Amino acid sequence: MTIPHPAGYRPAPAGTHPPLASPGYKSTGLRAPSQAPIVLPNRLTEVTGPLLAGEIGPHDHDLTAQHAGEPIGQRIIVFGRVLDSDGRAVPDTLVEVWQANAAGRYPHVRDNWPAPLDPNFTGGGRVMTDSQGNYSFTTVKPGAYPWGNHTNAWRPAHIHFSLFGRAFTQRLVTQMYFPDDPLFDQDPIFNSVPDPKARQRMVSTFDLDATRPEWALAYRWDIVLRGREQTVFEEPHE
């Protein structure tokens, strides 16, 4: 079902977002809808509901400073801007991240493959964009991990991103990857995005100028919410 686009809105080209049912990604067969969605109009409650932002803590943006000790792994800075389809900054937007530790393990009861947990890293952070749409996180580079989708299946290193807009229903979820990962070709989640150019928009860029000497490497990743250069999101918008 196609939802009419507001005036001036430039939709992403076909193939930008992954289909809900991707045969190579097995779990989509259990959760993809079998019937056409029913479009529910946004009423006053949805438009004016809570933004789920809350107070941002002093270390929410620095995942390496949330515990008594420092986590193990390569320290990195992930930064960029949140932009609209015309390249304008999107200020005051809540950006959340979650990721595996340097060994490729999440601190979750269902993640029990034999990789070490790090008591000084829980892998979650959040920050608000500033007036120019900038965001920045300090963290450690996540490791790859096995996930059982197919024989010898490993997920490329990635960081999950969630962005909240100005209404309760405005949430977008995506993943950021790192350049030149050897696992791209065999990952059905990354390759569920049909357009190769759109897939590359999920890959960050190493930025030597932004690297902090003797402290952390830096990766830039801009997030575009709409238009032809839109970042790939895990939810359909048409």
Model description:
There is one protein chain. This protein has 238 residues and is mainly β. The chain contains three helices and eleven strands, in the order ααββββββββαβββ. The chain has helices at 28-31, 44-48, 196-200, and strands at 75-83, 94-98, 124-128, 134-140, 145-146, 154-155, 158-164, 171-177, 205-206, 217-220, 223-224. The chain is globular. Mean pLDDT is 87; it is low at 1-7.
Short description:
The protein is mainly beta and 238 residues long. The chain has three helices and eleven strands, in the order H-H-E-E-E-E-E-E-E-E-H-E-E-E.
Any key phrases for this structure?
about 240 residues; mainly beta; 4-stranded antiparallel sheet; 11 strands; globular
Runs in which pLDDT lies below 50 for 5 or more consecutive residues are 1-7
Radius of gyration: 18 Å
Query: In total, how many beta strands?
Result: 11
Q: How would a crystallographer describe the biggest sheet?
A: 5 strands, mixed
Helix/sheet category: mainly beta
Shape: globular
Describe the SSE topology.
Layout: H1 28-31, H2 44-48, E1 75-83, E2 94-98, E3 124-128, E4 134-140, E5 145-146, E6 154-155, E7 158-164, E8 171-177, H3 196-200, E9 205-206, E10 217-220, E11 223-224
Parallel strand pairs: 1-10, 1-11
Antiparallel strand pairs: 1-4, 2-3, 2-7, 5-6, 7-8, 9-10
